[in-house]
């Protein structure tokens, strides 16, 4: 088991959260205040209250590889870059889906090490072998209208709360 810790601005420990996902690799806060945790063993989502931790996997148990990157799209979906490809969780869903590209136009590598949405809403993906590629080149996707003014807020961890771990497996 592993743990993440929350500190205040004066570097005092506020709370520690144990989780079963192996070593933590990436943290990301989505616009709804959820904290997303990328580990050696998958993706976990901590709800905005800090009380419910959900392990997100598809029916095959993926993503199994290490999590390297998160990005939130203009449609509020969360995109996840892993050592075994690109995944997406739609807004309000706990279902994780592998993102497939058009035949012959995919990423040069399944190892996604970084990504971001630009001001037009286009997803740019960085792979460990082939470098950076815009999604329109390989997905044929329209990410929807870009949103401006989106902000992130600090997630607070109340002291002395219990956390329920739930596994969400897509059918």
In whole angstroms, the N-to-C terminal distance is 27 Å
Main pleated-sheet profile = 5 strands, mixed
Number of strands: 14
Helix count, per DSSP? 1
If you average the pLDDT, what whole number results?
76
What pattern of helices and strands is seen along the backbone?
Answer: EEEEEEEEEEEEEHE
Taken from the alpha-carbon principal axes, the silhouette is globular
Q: Which strands sit side by side, in order, in the main sheet?
A: 3-4-5-6-14
Instruction: Give the strand content.
Output: 35-45%
Helix content: under 10%
Task: Report the radius of gyration as a whole number of Å.
Answer: 16 Å
Secondary-structure-based class equals mainly beta
Would you give an account of this structure?
It is built from 1 helix and 14 strands. The model is unreliable at 142-169 (pLDDT under 50). The radius of gyration is 16 Å and the shape is globular. It is mostly beta strands. The strands form 4 sheets. The chain has a 5-stranded mixed beta sheet, with no helix packed on it. It has a 4-stranded antiparallel beta sheet with strand order 7-8-9-10, with no helix packed on it. It has a 3-stranded antiparallel beta sheet with strand order 11-12-13. 2% of the residues lie in helices and 44% in strands.
């Amino acid at each position: 088991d592993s743990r993440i810790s929350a500190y205040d601005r004066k570097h005092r420990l506020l709370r520690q959260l144990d989780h079963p996902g192996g070593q933590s690799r990436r943290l990301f806060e989505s616009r709804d205040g959820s904290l997303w945790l990328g580990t050696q063993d998958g993706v976990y989502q901590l709800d905005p209250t800090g009380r419910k931790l959900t392990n997100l996997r598809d029916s095959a148990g993926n993503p199994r590889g290490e999590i390297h990157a998160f990005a939130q799209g203009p449609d509020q979906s969360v995109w996840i870059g892993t050592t075994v490809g690109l995944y997406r969780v739609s807004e309000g869903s706990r279902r994780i889906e592998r993102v497939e590209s058009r035949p012959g136009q995919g990423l040069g590598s399944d190892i996604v090490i970084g990504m971001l949405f630009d001001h037009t809403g286009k997803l740019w993906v960085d792979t460990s072998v082939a470098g950076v590629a815009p999604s329109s080149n390989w997905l044929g996707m329209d990410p929807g209208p870009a949103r401006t003014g989106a902000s992130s807020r600090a997630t607070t961890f109340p002291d002395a709360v219990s956390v329920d771990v739930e596994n969400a497996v897509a059918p």
